[in-house]
Amino acid sequence: MPDESIKGPASYFPSIEKKYGRPIGDWQQIVRSKLPAKHMELVAMLKAEHGLGHGHANAIVAHVLAEQKG
Q1: Domain for residue 49, yes or no?
Q2: Which DSSP symbol is given to 34?
Q3: Residue 58 · residue 52 · CB < 8 Å
Q4: 18: Cβ–Cβ under 8 A, 6 or more apart, which residues?
Q5: How far apart (Å, rounded) are the C-alpha atoms in residues 11 and 44?
Q6: Is residue 40 part of a domain?
Q7: Which Pfam families does the protein's record reference (predicted)?
Q8: Range of 63's domain?
Q9: Which bin fits 69, alpha (ψ -120 to 50), beta or left (φ > 0)?
Q10: How many domains does the chain have?
């Protein structure tokens, strides 16, 4: 059962790791390596180059961009 204390984009991380077989840190580093870029450009890159679904790509990008702001 998923950890219900995790909210927001990070709540997708366990299913992303399970589905795509890579640690979430790898995906975050891929996004960071493309900065600066717009949110939807990063989502499109993850989808086109790595085969992620829209929701999973969006969650990773949103989390990385929130870290960059904070």
Answers
A1: yes
A2: T
A3: no
A4: none
A5: 21
A6: yes
A7: DUF4287 (PF14117)
A8: 10-69
A9: alpha
A10: 1
The span from the CA of 34 to the CA of 42, in Å, is 7
Helices and strands, counts by H and E, the chain = 4, 0
The predicted structure's pLDDT at residue 6: 80
Tokens coding 31: 């996004």
- Residue 44 belongs to a domain: yes
pLDDT on residue 14? 96
d(C-alpha 52, C-alpha 44), whole Å: 9
Residue 31 lies in a domain: yes
Helix%, strand%, coil% for the chain, nearest 5: 75, 0, 25
pLDDT tens sequence across 6-60: 888 899 999 999 999 999 999 999 999 999 999 999 999 999 999 999 999 999 9
